[in-house]
Amino acid sequence: MKLVVDWDLCEGHGQCEFAAPDVFSINDNGDLEVLEGPLPGSELASVEQAVRRCPVRALKLEG
Amino acid sequence: MTITKPDSDIDLMDLAPFIDGTENDLLARLRAAEPLHWNTEPEGPGFWSLTRYSDIIEVVNDPLTFINGEGTQILSRKVEGGTSTVHNTDPPRHGKLRKLVTPHLRAVKISEWHDVIAEAVDDILDSVAEQNEIELVSTVSALLPIRVLGQVLGVPLEDCGLLLDWTNRVVSDDPEFMKGPDEKERAREELFGYFRELTAKRRAEPRNDIISKLVAAEIDGEPLSWEDLAAYYFVLVGAGNETTRNLITGAVLAFDQFPDQWDALVADHSLLRPAIEELLRFVTPIRAMRRTAARDVEWQGTTIREGDKVVLWFQAANRDPEIFEDPDALRIGRSPNDHLGFGWGIHACMGSHLARAEVTTFFQKVLERGIRFRPLEEPDRLHTNQFHAFKRLRVAVETS
Question: What is the C-alpha to C-alpha distance for residues A24 and B277, in angstroms, rounded to an integer?
């Protein structure tokens, strides 16, 4: 599975960080930072939750 | 204004069902039979109501068509006066304003406030632990959010009581809090006067609080004007105060209605995280938010005209059986739980992580102390259709 961020939509709401803090973080400028590299399988459930809970639908899981 | 308005005997401006706690039946009828409903207003142009989850998601995902800039209250007004706040601002300015504060309210940053929250909860529970009976709202629910939010903003602990009094008077339309016709204006002036002084102090000596961040912030190279700052403080205080307190009171009532769910939580404290999400769904402290159509929109065979008010009933969406199985039941383990308790879309709640932290810490400590609050009578609800808000609730304090 590949995580795709639509950077035009993301506004740094941070619900993803709440759901999967090891994958997502909002920096001090309010911008999202995402864990680099392939998603660890152990994170899949929490990343799925992050995708569902993004209020601006900026996240997608593909593949 | 539209030409064809569907007939319906349901009037959401009649506050009686919201005061006696039967509003979910009313909202369910609308959601099933008339998901786009025209409501007249005694002193206003009227408004559309949306009650289905999918419809509300569609509207909030189109913030250029359904705008916030004309106000978010059901009534045609902006509670903070003429200045536009982050929630009454549309893109592109909205995102810039929002980003000034969101980094400081993110989940990880909120954990830095854990000690402040824990101390507030301990003080509050210490003060009620020895009593058999308390009035929950004034001794518990109302005290926690204002004390935490005040300190996150930068208000000294000893002034947090003042904040509570001002926000009660400015935000509420309930006759009980209004001592006279000019009360709202006077409270607003006092509140803004206080913040003007505090702003000057934080400008001179910044600290790790939101006021210090906002006075130093810039949008497109320009610092925020006093009006922008004041509006921002106002929305943060109002939103943080009027919501979390009602989630706490509403949660106590919900657990009384579904005692097996409290028993389940007592047996397994790790259910607290999904339980808080379920309480956000079940209680829905903000019942509704309003948008305004920026152009004519064809909607399910009806035309919503440019300028029409469109009210999104999050409370109805949160009990939409298309989305939630057995929606009228509190199920603390509910998963998935894509509730709209914090709204949705670009204007979704900025303080969600703070609210979660406060309510989670509160119930964690209630559980650890073996406390159970048992309502002794029906709550006294605030006279408003927009907030699921409680003025008073007498409860017994049981300790196991």
Answer: 20
Q: Domains in chain A, start-ordered, CATH in brackets?
A: 2-62 (3.30.70.20)
Residue B205 belongs to a domain: yes
**Counted domains in chain B:** 1
**Are A61 and A48 spatial neighbours (Cβ–Cβ below 8 Å)?**
yes
- Looking at residue B93, which CATH number applies to its domain? 1.10.630.10
ipTM: 0.88
Residue B9 lies in a domain: no
Which residue in the block uniquely carries the two structure tokens 């004041």? B230
Touching B: A residues 8-47, CB under 8 Å: 11-15, 17-18, 21, 25-30
Alpha carbon dihedral B193, B197, B199, B204, in 10-degree steps, equals 170
User: ∠ CA A32-A33-A37 to the nearest 5 degrees?
Assistant: 145
What are the pLDDT digits (tens) for B10-39? 999 999 999 999 999 999 999 999 999 999
pTM of the entire predicted model: 0.94
> Cβ A52–B108 below 8 Å, yes or no?
no
